[in-house]
Each structure stands twice: as C-alpha cells, then as structure tokens.
Specification:
about 250 residues, two-stranded antiparallel ribbon, six-stranded mixed β-sheet, alpha/beta, about 15% strand
Length: about 250
C-alpha cells in the first residue's frame, strides 16, 4: 500500500521558538569558544624579550700590568670595574660577556674575537689613567664604510663607526649627568678596530685635578670605592638608555 507523505507548514509561533533556541545555542557555542581561546592565551608562555648583549673588555691583565695608578696596576682597576659593572647590567636584565674574569693575559686579537662571537649590541673597553680627570671616551678613527659580507680584520669597525659614535654620545650624556667631566676623541684602537659591533674605549681618570694630585685615597681618586660605584652606575645607566632606544 503506498505511503502518502504529507508536509505541513510549521506554525509561526513554533518557527519563532525554534529560531530562538538556535540563537541561544549559537551564542553559547561562541562564548565557549571565546573562553577556550582566553584560557589558551593565558597559558601561553610570554614572548621572549629582545636579546641585548654587552661585552665588557677589562684592559690589560696577566703579564700586561698597564699603567701605574697611585702605586696600583691599571689591570686591577679595570677588572674591578668590569666585575662591578657586570653585576649592575645583569640586574637590569642584560646578558654580559666579559673578555676576562681574572688576572689573565688576553691578546688584542682574542678580545676582538670574543666581542664578535658574542654578536653584541655594545662593547666597552675599560681603561684607567692618572692623566687628566673625569672620563675619556675614544672611538675608532677608521672612516665610516658600508658593511661587507666578510669584514676585513683590523678594519671591521669601519662599518660600525657611526653607531660607535652614537654609543659614545649616550655614554657622554650619562657621565655628564653623573657630574663627571668627559672628553671625546677618535684614535687608532688596535682591538676595537677589528670589532663588528658598536664599541667605545672608556678610560677613567681621577674625578678632579685635586683628587688626582692628592696622592692619597681621598674622595674622587681611582681607588675610592664611592667614585668607582658612581662611574659604574653612570655606565650602566648609559647602556640601559642605549637598550631603551632600540640601538642595534
């Protein structure tokens, strides 16, 4: 016996109710999906911060005593300043590479190799002197050049001189803000000239002519812990500013 299929229209009231239920289900599904996405976002690990590496090159060391600073070897002052500055930078979230951690001899080529391998955003070569007062900043005298695929040894810094001058400007501002006298110059720098990163030689002298000529451990002399701390704080502030500015 044939079956007769009868199709009847759904009453308007029932149709409206059905649409309402479908809308509720759709909203519930959307809310559920949003909740899942929110949980996933909350559980996702934070994006890693940009890598910022600083190389601290404590000049001299081992058989190389450097200059004589009120009876002390320059190599001791540069190492002490490097250690103090390294701690300040690490506390500010910077990765620090040092060319030496003890009284060892490191030749100039090896210092450049360490800086280049670190792919650093800044390198400070730390020196000290009894000549003059305040801080002396030196940048390579190489003429600026375009970056090359293979940087030539002893002239590699040419591609970075402009950035090194900018770094020196940031250091100058921070040191002046700390109340120090600052001089800037450009000269041949055997180790720095082979570096492929912004690099500045920072030479620290007694804070003032009076401190320099006293011959005793008074305020502002190279062996004054307070003066050493102010120098390190100023250099750390400069590097923090360098990082904040997004310098390469």
């Amino acid at each position: 016996m044939p079956v007769k299929l009868e199709i009847r229209p759904i009453p308007a009231a029932h149709n409206q109710a059905l649409r309402g239920r479908l809308l509720v289900w759709a909203l519930a599904a959307l809310c559920s999906a949003s909740a899942v996405l929110s949980i996933a976002a909350a559980q996702a690990p934070p994006a890693p911060s940009a890598r910022f590496v600083v190389v601290l090159d404590a000049a001299h060391g081992g058989d190389d005593f450097g200059g004589r600073l009120n009876g002390e070897a320059e190599k001791n002052f540069t190492l002490a300043l490097s250690v103090r500055l390294r701690s300040l930078l690490a506390a500010r979230g910077m990765q620090v590479v040092t060319t030496r951690e003890s009284d060892t001899t490191i030749d100039l080529n090896r210092r450049a190799e360490l800086a280049n391998h670190a792919n650093a955003q800044a390198c400070l070569s730390l020196h000290a002197t009894e000549s003059g007062f305040g801080a002396h900043l030196f940048v390579s005298s190489l003429a600026p050049a375009q970056p090359a695929r293979f940087a030539a040894w002893k002239t590699a810094q040419a591609a970075w001189v402009t950035r090194s001058l900018a770094l020196a400007g940031t250091l100058n501002s921070a040191l002046l803000h700390a109340g120090m006298t600052v001089s800037l110059a450009r000269t041949a720098l055997p180790a720095v000239d082979s570096m492929t990163c912004p690099a500045v030689v920072v030479e620290i002298a007694p804070e003032s002519a009076q401190a320099r000529d006293s011959g005793q451990q008074n305020q502002g002399t190279l062996d004054d812990p307070g003066y050493q701390a102010r120098v390190a704080e100023a250099l750390a502030a400069a590097l923090l500013e360098w990082r904040t500015e997004g310098r390469p």
